[in-house]
Amino acid sequence: MKRLSPEGRTVAMLLGVVVTMGALAWAAVPFYDWFCRVTGFGGTTQVSETASDQILDEVVRVRFDANTDSNLEWTFRPMQARMDLKIGESGLAFYEAVNNSDVPLTGTASYNVAPEVSGYYFIKVECFCFTEQTLQPGERVEMPVSFYVDPELVDDRDAGHVRDITLSYTFHRTEPRSAALDSGAADTIN
Q1: Cβ contact 38:119 at 8 Å
Q2: Residues 91, 28: one domain?
Q3: Exposure winner among 30, 163, 168, 170, fewest CB in 10 A?
Q4: Which residues lie toward the Periplasmic compartment (predicted)?
Q5: Rounded to a whole number, what is the distance in angstroms from the first to the last CA of the chain?
């Protein structure tokens, strides 16, 4: 086998670097999503299929916040400003969305909690943010979110002092999945 010239080795090495960087960039999004879900990093909340089986006497205040991306012609707001719950107690809050345009619009909600250290302990049981929402022109909907704050919060040395949590949603305009699938486009993961 013939040895590569110094220029050939440089080209091969640079090509290897480009391929490696591309692979790392491709893997970064799913890895970051997994990391945030596991650790609660960045205020990412957890998901559970059941409510807590333990309720403490300590109270936590949950505040609700809503935002809409500028390219989505919706009015989106929490229907309550805050809720006081015992830690471990299930809460049910509602958000209202209104399509202010004259065409059907689809949106997906991104979410987080603040302070970030509480994200690992904020557990959603059911949420409108798990699926895309399509509203017809002028349509108004009330969307529920069922949640609780995990009692393990009080034992965490960084988050144990938290008794005030803000749950924040931002709705972003998206193309309806059914339309994307009908046109033969591949699924996208947000």
Answers
A1: no
A2: no
A3: 30
A4: 29-190
A5: 47
In one-letter notation, the amino acid at residue 132 is E
Same domain, 54 and 130: yes
Positions of E strands within the chain: 46-47, 59-68, 74-78, 82-86, 91-99, 105-114, 122-127, 133-135, 140-149, 164-174
188 domain-assigned: no
* Nearest CA among 179, 170, 163, 185 for reference residue 60: 163
**Same domain? 76 vs 170:** yes
Q: What is the per-residue pLDDT across 177-188, written as a single tens digit (0 to 9) for each?
A: 754 444 444 443
Nearest alpha carbon to residue 99 among 66, 134, 67: 134
One-letter identity of residue 3:
R
What is the tens place of the pLDDT at every residue in 92-140? 999 999 999 999 999 999 988 999 898 889 999 888 888 899 999 999 9
CB 152 within 8 A of CB 52: no
Q: State which residues form the domain around 49.
A: 42-182
Please spell the DSSP secondary structure of 101-156, one letter per residue.
Answer: SSS-EEEEEEEEEESGGGGGGEEEEEEGGGS-EEE-TT-EEEEEEEEEE-GGGGG-
For residue 186, what pLDDT is reported? 42
pTM over 0.85: no
Number of domains in the chain: 2
